[in-house]
Design goal:
- By secondary structure, this protein is mainly α.
- The protein has 2 domains: 102 residues, no CATH class; 116 residues.
- The chain is built from 13 helices and 4 strands.
- The chain is globular.
């Protein structure tokens, strides 16, 4: 799905997400003038999207990895790291962490007072888990820090964060840091204009509602036309 963030609309729904299919669409619409004013493309960490955009639109277009996909990846690795810590504990100690996943993954403002107190107690009892939670908060604060407004500054801060995260000695965090390194330039581009793919998730919900109401659709072209009819007009 190709989204026009400026006008909050779906431009196109492609049948394939492979690089060639995406590049052909972008090149065609670049030539037509539809995409002539594009300065930035936001995407997730599916490599074909960024590669296709760079090929079709040129090096002058900034490719930005959406911060929410970065945090989703981190949340997955945080859960893996928590399990890694639990496996290293005696059975009685590990039992105390059963059913606490929500506490470690949820923003503090979304926790009740009782849940916050429980989280503080667990962090004191299990210091490594407490440090893991702190790294989560630090990464969020980094993305929200309006004092970081260039890709170069973003890269520096992310490298400092990675150094601190790796010091915890958890395999799951090391895997996440390798992901950050692989995509560092495009993730750091977020700090330039703080562009987000959040609107895409909203449109995805709309697309799923079309499929539910139709009890599924076997004909892709019919589905595409319905999406464009419902979500293709500028807001």
């Amino acid at each position: 799905m190709i989204i026009d963030h400026t006008n909050a609309r779906v431009l196109e729904v492609l049948e394939s997400r492979e690089k060639q299919a995406v590049a052909e669409y972008l090149e065609r619409e670049w030539d037509s003038g539809l995409l002539a004013d594009v300065v930035e493309v936001t995407t997730d960490m599916w490599s074909s999207y960024g590669e296709a955009a760079q090929q079709a639109l040129g090096e002058q277009v900034r490719i930005t990895i959406d911060r929410f996909h970065v945090m989703k990846n981190f949340q997955d690795q945080l859960t893996a790291a928590r399990r890694e810590i639990q496996r290293s504990l005696p059975r009685e100690e590990a039992q105390a962490l059963k059913g606490t996943r929500w506490l470690w993954l949820t923003n503090e403002e979304n926790l009740t007072e009782q849940e916050r107190a429980e989280l503080v107690a667990l962090a004191e009892r299990f210091p490594l888990l407490g440090q893991l939670r702190q790294q989560r908060e630090r990464l969020q604060e980094l993305f929200e820090d309006r004092g970081i407004h260039t890709a170069a500054a973003g890269r520096r801060e992310l490298r400092v964060w990675m150094e601190q995260a790796r010091a915890l000695g958890l395999q799951a965090l090391d895997r996440f840091c390798k992901t950050l390194e692989n995509w560092l330039d495009k993730i750091a581009n977020y700090f330039v204009s703080r562009a987000s793919n959040g609107r895409v998730e909203g449109f995805n919900t709309g697309l799923r509602s079309i499929l539910r109401r139709a009890f599924g659709m076997l004909n892709f072209e019919h589905f595409r036309l319905r999406v464009l009819d419902r979500f293709g007009a500028p807001s």
